[in-house]
Amino acid sequence: MSDFWNGTAGQRWVRSADRYDRQLAAYSQQVLLRARLQAGERVLDIGCGTGPLTIAARKKLGPTGTATGIDISGRMIKRARRDLEASGLGNVEFLRADAQTHRLGTSQFDVAVSRFGVMFFEEPVDAFANVARAVRPGGRLVFTCWQSPEANPWLTIQRQATEALLDLPGIDPDAPGPFSMAATGRTLEILRQAGWIGAAASPLVGRIHIGGPGTVEEAVRFVMATGAVATGLEGRKKKRVAKVEAALTEALAPHHDGTGVSLPSGAWLVEARR
Q1: Angle CA(27)–CA(28)–CA(31) in degrees, nearest 5?
Q2: I want to staple 135 with a disulfide (CB 3.0 to 4.6 A). Which of 42, 139, 145, 207 is the partner?
Q3: What's the whole-number mean pLDDT along residues 37-65?
Q4: How many distinct structural domains can be found in the chain?
Q5: Residue range of the domain that includes 31
């Protein structure tokens, strides 16, 4: 995972960070709503990426609150620090480190949150146990993770449109990756073993604008620049790239709702306590 997120995957994410954030903004709002942040609290954002949730959380904490974002990707942390400087906020720290192994201290935080940043741990029980030690007794955990590929047509439509043209990486739900926590029974057991109590998962079912609001062309460019399709396009000749662009345009255009390319999505909002 370190090689993955510090390589081309991290580079692509940073290049499209603004579109990722617009695509996922509603999930950030749900995490913050359910986290019930209070003035003066100390928040840890796990797998913070380029830091939008960390910064949004900090804004809710008043002058004495603190927010810490941790991510394994140096590229993403560099972008997060740049955006933090532009925001002018204080009491925010971004750590380039692995939340599974980094010494986060004991009872250093009141709340741990994450927006799709917890599905990539090599040893998830160890990772959530490490976070649990860092959260005070009575503290909270709130995160989102994806449901199954079948519940996320916004993602599978991209693969279906391009799989005959590209060698796409497979999806292994048992390996670290976006769908590793799709089975809630497994997820809640991981949290129990890691020392969390009262864990529960609620469905977040709605629609996603691919790459955020925008034109069909913008959505196609976003898909071609990110994720599995971008990986499959590596080293391809211009003629093949053009075929992929045409296939994606044909697949996505019927789903433009006047605001953006909109398709169903499914996630879990998971909560637990220390």
Answers
A1: 85
A2: 139
A3: 97
A4: 1
A5: 2-151+170-209+260-273
First to last CA, the chain: 27
Report d(CA 84, CA 236) in Å as an integer: 37
Q: What is the mean pLDDT of residues 209-220?
A: 98
CA 231 vs CA 4, 9, 123, 217: distances in Å: 12, 8, 25, 19
Q: Could you please report the per-residue DSSP string of 215-235?
A: -HHHHHHHHHHSHHHHHHHTT
In a domain, 24, yes or no: yes
Q: Where are the beta strands (DSSP E) in the chain?
A: 42-46, 66-71, 92-96, 109-115, 135-146, 197-209, 262-273
Average pLDDT value for residue range 62-74: 97
Return the higher-pLDDT residue of 57 and 167. 57
Residue 1's nearest CA partner among 75, 73, 94 is 73
Amino acid in position 92:
V
Q: Per-residue pLDDT for 1 more than 80?
A: no
Q: Spell 198-208 as b/e; 16+ CB within 10 A means b.
A: ebebeebeeeb
pTM of the model: 0.95
According to the model, what pLDDT value does residue 2 have? 80
Q: What are phi and psi of 39, to 5 degrees?
A: -55, 135
What the block records as the tokens of 268 is 């879990």
